[in-house]
Design a protein that fits this description.
Keywords: Glycosyltransferase, Membrane, Transferase, Transmembrane, Transmembrane helix. The protein is of the alpha/beta class. It is 56% helix and 12% strand. It folds into two domains: 144 residues, no CATH class; 224 residues, Spore Coat Polysaccharide Biosynthesis Protein SpsA, Chain A, CATH 3.90.550.10.
Length: 420
Amino acid sequence: MKTLSYVNFIISILFMACYAYQAVYLVAALLKKQKVFKAKKLHRYGVLIAARNEEAVIAQLIRSVRAQKYPEELIDIFVVADNCTDNTAQAAREAGAVVYERHNTYAVGKGYALRFLLENIFKNFGEYAYDGFFVFDADNILDENFISEMNHVFDNGYKVVTSYRNSKNFGDNWISAGYSIFFLREATQLNRARMMFGTSSCVSGTGFLFSSEIARENGGWKHFLLTEDFEFTVDRILKDDTVGYCENAIIYDEQPTRLGQSFTQRARWIKGYLQVFSRYGFKMLKKTVVDGSFACFDMIMNNIPCLVLTCASIVFNAIMVAAGIVTRTPDMGVCVLSVCSGIFGSILTLWFVGGITCITQRKRIRASKKAMFFGWLLFPLFIFTYAIAMVYAVFTNIEWKPIQHKVALSVEDLNDTTKK
């Protein structure tokens, strides 16, 4: 059983080696001032929304887009009602969007819906009608300055810009709180630092902007893996584009609240990461080594080592513990101590990271102090369930499934949230 202790020690060292650079990110994000961007031009944008059975929330998003402090005549809103069986299309039209209905049960997923939407926009409005396109999920709502702030960064030469992903329902339970801290940490401790160091940020599902030049180059949208957002990020990095980040552009996203739904979603993310590295991994490694691309190195380190080491640790520890119980090994205490010390160290690390996130972002988190505290306290549990989803994703087949949304709030509702 001493072998287990040695292996766990080696895995811990590998974890620290792979993610030591993120400690530099953290220090820079906390201490270094962000660059302020100012736009010289107001660009014309198309807003892309892929919606599947989202009649409960779609109107709130469209209203938040129409309420932007940005010239209304420079924003057109497009919705693809994708395989809907409810009144999503009608709700979107009544709210003021141009709606296209798609019915295809074979090519399923957000990537296919975006391709369909851009094909129709190019056909009916032309390929040069817009300078850029925003991508939102139907459950999102935008801060009133979102597009203005994104325009500042976009106008300074970034072909792709991602935003600050906040939560509509942080305080619902420990699962929604865990998601919220996870995304806030990605925004403020990773993407903020990446922007400061001049490397590429990572698009995170929703709330991003890309130039019409990219849309024309790609023939619309060409990314169809389970994590089409990460695939898009990697593809642009390989083409030497730098994904920008705008922290003053705040988007609010609804997070899952049920463990089964959350587990399925995160397993899909992991399977999507594996798909991306299966398709682009060699090109990323080559660009890292040959061109010295830190952005490629960062994208590789941000996912694969964690996935491999976590799965190896869980599987190896489970096998060793089971073997110890079956053989009634006399030094079972060493095994238990090794496992417990590893878990305790992980909990402390996650409390530290989650605590910094909650403290630094407390003014932006739309939840009570009590909800924030319990979200931080149970953040390690959220990440541990993520680790189990990793193992599940590696050894099973995962398909895209829609996530049901029902939190219909406005920005005003969020601003009225009382913090106790």
